[in-house]
Write a structure and sequence with these properties.
The chain is mostly beta strands and 88 residues long. It is 7% helix and 49% strand. The termini are far apart.
Length: 88
């Protein structure tokens, strides 16, 4: 029967900022061990994009925010990135 599809994965809430947007969403990472930290995903040379779920996108220059179930953010556009602390 095997493990459930996400048994060896976890979601971490993260914040990204590009030149034009502030983006908050969840990234899926290994539960532990190799490449289980958010910084590992940011620093992976073979990964050009960050897939996020449950996303809020806020324009820096003002305007309406948008919610999306899934977005892919090009790492080349990310200027600031950090995990969002629980309860923050």
């Amino acid at each position: 029967m095997g493990l459930p599809p996400n048994a060896d994965r976890r979601r971490e809430r993260v914040f990204l900022e590009t030149d034009r947007h502030r983006i908050t969403g969840e990234i899926t990472l290994p539960a532990d061990g190799y490449q289980s930290r958010f910084s590992d995903a940011i620093n992976r040379g073979d990964l050009a994009f960050l897939p996020l779920t449950d996303v809020e996108i806020v324009p820096i220059e003002g305007g309406e925010s948008a919610r999306r179930g899934f977005v892919v953010v090009g790492k080349a556009h990310v200027r600031l990135a950090h995990p969002v602390e629980a309860g923050a």
